[in-house]
Design brief:
Layout (H helix, E strand, L loop, with lengths): L5 E3 L11 H15 L3 E4 L4 E2 L9 E3 L19 H13 L3 E6 L3 E2 L4 E11 L2 E5 L4 E8 L19 E4 L10 E4 L23 E3 L4 H17 L4 E4 L7 H15 L4 E4 L6 H10 L5 E3 L1 H13 L13 H4 L4 E4 L20 H10 L4 E5 H4 L10 H13 L5 E4 L5 E6 L10 E6 L4 E6 L8 E4 L8 E2 L5 E6 L4 E6 L1
Bound molecules: calcium ion.
The site of calcium ion has 6 residues, from loops.
Length: 480
């Protein structure tokens, strides 16, 4: 979609009040008005407890419909409320991407006895101790749902490993023993083999599991009339399964069915290897760019802005990169905390929203705020979203030619009257740069739209002009 913008519509500290779906429904028109074209909704199924964010999956078929785990609704509301929110988003031409958490399950209904070996948490290929019988929380009957939508019942042999064995009184990772049981291939190599992340690790090598998960994925997308998915924890799921899963989804929902995966690594080569392994069937979040933005925000003027896009996904695979500044995992207090500092957020968002490449994703916390406190960034985000919608068209000229002041221009196109812009970022002193916005703009008067400058700039006959930025700030110049 031309100049699409995704919004991640949750943050980690939302209250457990069951109102998110209703608020999303009421917000749909506003989201459309500010230029949001797709919404990533949080995990919509029953977790092990009502207050969970949705990654501690109990029953993937319970979308806030059945009385299970002491609640009908999830943290975010009921299935009916979610369906109403999705209908409202679609009425406003906003696509819906479902958070899809397949790697792990917890909150089992009963224990089972099976054979398992403890493994070294730092090297899961290293077994420590002989196989022994353990009692683990691996049995699922879903008593509140019964057989509705699926009669699949989960048992120990549907998992590769578990940390849900408590009889020894310690937390440990167990590799479940049995015919064909092993950690999956085609997962990240950290810790020897990174198949296991947490809870009961779903065994995608088990044919019944693979078939059931594909069936569920199609059911999930069709039931909620979804336009795409955000795939959680891809480092920990066999890549061959993900390729098959996307085939099944696109057979059912059409080849335009969208997918973006979370493969959390700051190393671009990890992402490249993954994309090759799944035949480029999914986009990936640009974690390397996130880490660049994080470092730049930490280091201030010592960070060389000329390297801001070097070895990022958006630089190497621009059509497969979802660019973002922060998310629920990077925000303060979360598992992968690496929150971009506040002073740099306007610069970071200006870059991802105004440059030609990448599919930008705005974080709920940055737009609406976290823990109920209003975000200081909403005003600038509204300005930048408006600029993306009306100005950020045409070719791009890059000016990443100074350690502390970098910029780019968009030349505009004929389809969008008055489009074209000049962007400058500074992490040091006040800066200025002669930049080319295209001869089509010769003689025009341009002004700065973030409120940094009152003065105006006249574009020369050659399409060039001298643009300015204040130290540590962003400046966006457009036709007046
Ligand atoms: Ca796994």
């Amino acid at each position: 979609m031309k100049n699409g913008v995704m919004m991640q519509y949750f943050e980690w500290n939302l209250p457990n009040d069951g109102t998110l779906w209703t608020r999303l429904k009421e917000d749909a028109k506003h989201l459309h008005d500010i230029g949001v074209t797709s919404v990533w909704v949080p995990p919509a199924y029953k977790a092990d407890e009502q207050q969970d964010e949705g990654y501690a999956v109990y029953d993937l078929y319970d979308l806030g419909e059945f009385d299970q785990k002491g609640t009908v609704r999830t943290k975010y509301g009921t299935r009916g409320e979610l369906e109403e929110a999705i209908a409202a988003l679609h009425e406003n031409k906003i696509s819906v991407y479902l958070d899809t958490v397949m790697n792990q399950k917890t909150g089992a209904d009963y224990t089972e006895k099976f054979m398992a070996c403890e493994v070294d948490p730092e090297n899961r290929e290293q077994v420590i101790g002989p196989p022994k019988q353990v009692e683990g929380w691996t049995g699922y009957t879903f008593p509140g749902r019964g057989d509705k939508y699926s009669d699949f019942k989960w048992h120990w042999y549907h998992f590769t490993g578990t940390d849900q064995v408590y009889e020894t009184g310690k937390r440990a990772i167990y590799l479940i023993q049995g015919e064909g049981k092993k950690w999956s291939e085609g997962v990240d190599g950290e810790n020897g083999n990174y198949d296991f992340l947490i809870f009961n690790d779903v065994d995608f090598d088990h044919p019944d599991v693979a078939a059931e998960m594909k069936r569920w994925g199609v059911w999930f997308a069709e039931t909620l009339d979804a336009d795409g998915m955000r795939l959680d924890a891809l480092k920990h799921i066999e890549n061959k399964f993900i390729g098959d899963f996307m085939h099944a989804l696109r057979d059912a929902r059409g080849k335009e069915f969208y997918a973006v995966g979370e493969y959390w690594s700051g190393d671009f080569t990890d992402l490249e290897a993954y994309l090759d392994a799944v035949d480029h069937s999914v986009d990936l979040f640009d974690a390397p760019l996130h880490y660049k933005l994080f470092q730049a925000s930490q280091q201030g003027r010592d960070f060389d802005l000329q390297t801001l896009l070097a070895d990022t996904l958006v630089e190497k695979y621009p059509t497969l990169a979802v660019t973002f500044v922060d998310n629920h995992d990077s925000q303060r207090g979360s598992s992968l905390e690496s929150q971009v500092k506040a002073w740099f957020k306007p610069l970071a968002y200006a870059l991802i929203l105004l440059m030609k490449e990448g599919y930008p994703c705005i974080f709920y916390g940055d737009y609406y705020g976290v823990k109920g406190e209003l975000s200081p960034h909403r005003v600038i985000l509204d300005i930048l979203l408006d600029a993306r919608r009306s100005r950020a068209f045409g070719e791009q000229n890059d000016y990443f030619d100074h350690p502390n002041t970098v910029g780019l221009t968009r030349t505009g196109d004929q389809e969008h009257p008055d489009s074209g812009l000049a962007l400058l970022l500074s992490n040091g002193d006040d800066g200025e740069k002669v930049m080319d916005v295209g001869e089509a703009h010769a003689g025009e008067t341009w002004h700065e739209i973030t409120g940094s400058f009152d003065e105006e700039v006249k574009i020369g006959d050659d399409g060039k002009a001298l643009f300015k930025v204040h130290g540590g700030k962003v400046a966006v110049w457009t036709k007046k």
